[in-house]
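Backbone-to-sequence.
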């Protein structure tokens, strides 16, 4: 087995060294490498990572020029990973490195392309738990995630899926969204979850909003279609209301109140506008998805041509 461990590093000068040491110990029986990606840390993380690269032959180190965000750092790390399996793990010890073998064993036993970890009890702050719940709820509708699957940052990905993910060249990668563009052969296994060893999470309200918008808009046409359906419903209600008003006026010969005509015009016009914007957005969305790197298909197993036997009639001399 050949394994790569990708670690996005951000302000973790106190934990990244012990984490790499522990990885070297618990994976000693495996052929593996470690890819450290420093995401513009403001502390001494870069120097520590350089020392680790010098100390261990199987450690690769990449430093980004500024803080691009966790998903961007992970995508960078995936571009430098060469293992048959690639495991992404955080730098804060909340996921024990020993659990990597649990992910690998589950992938080999079940043949999954991707294996996510889930926890019996999460040790995150309540705000991060709230953000995780919100993102997981949105992804159920936007990228087709199974409802009972938890999208954790600690996961295993087969190299064939990694090869498709790194084709993405846009500025806003969402690793789980890219995974579900490629495969639905996804599993989950329970692993322990620990409290942070040092410091506090960098998961802020600003990052939560950015991630939510990225998931909601960047990886699906679902938002456009929601507003298209809403506009269609409003337009339909407006037409029905107008028809009811007309029939009532013809049958009862009553004078229509001015406010009813105004309200009917507003509802019908708003519905028509939303419907038009939805159709226009559908065209723009198709163009966006076409240029976002989404492959038309992904082969799991390539066809191998088998030489055909020679035709004896074709080889026989002409009479």
């Amino acid at each position: 087995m050949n394994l790569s461990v990708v670690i996005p590093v951000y302000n973790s000068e106190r934990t990244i060294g012990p984490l790499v040491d522990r990885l070297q110990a618990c994976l000693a029986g495996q052929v593996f490498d470690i890819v450290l990606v420093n995401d513009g840390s403001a502390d001494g993380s870069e120097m520590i990572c350089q020392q680790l690269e010098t100390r261990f032959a199987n450690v690769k180190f990449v430093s980004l020029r500024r803080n691009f965000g966790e998903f961007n750092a992970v995508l960078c790390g995936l571009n430098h990973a060469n293992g048959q399996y690639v495991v992404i793990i955080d730098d804060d010890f909340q996921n024990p490195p020993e659990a990597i073998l649990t992910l690998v064993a589950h992938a080999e036993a079940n043949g999954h392309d991707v294996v996510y970890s889930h926890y019996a009890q999460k040790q995150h702050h309540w705000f991060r738990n709230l953000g995780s719940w919100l993102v997981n709820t949105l992804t159920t509708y936007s990228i087709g995630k199974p409802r009972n699957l938890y999208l954790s940052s600690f996961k295993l990905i087969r190299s064939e899926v990694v090869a498709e993910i790194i084709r993405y060249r846009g500025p806003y990668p969402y690793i789980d969204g890219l995974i579900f563009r490629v495969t639905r052969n996804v599993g989950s296994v329970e692993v322990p979850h620990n409290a942070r060893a040092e410091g506090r999470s960098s998961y802020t309200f600003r990052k939560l909003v950015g991630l939510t918008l990225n998931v909601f808009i960047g990886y699906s046409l679902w938002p456009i279609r929601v507003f298209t359906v809403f506009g269609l419903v409003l337009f339909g209600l407006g037409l029905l209301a107008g028809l009811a008003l007309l029939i009532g006026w013809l049958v009862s010969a009553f004078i229509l109140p001015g406010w009813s005509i105004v309200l009917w015009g507003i509802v019908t016009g708003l519905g028509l506008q939303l419907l038009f914007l939805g159709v226009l957005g559908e065209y723009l969305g198709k163009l966006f998805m076409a240029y976002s790197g989404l492959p038309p298909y992904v082969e799991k197993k390539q066809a191998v041509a088998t030489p055909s036997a020679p035709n004896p009639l074709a080889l026989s001399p002409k009479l």
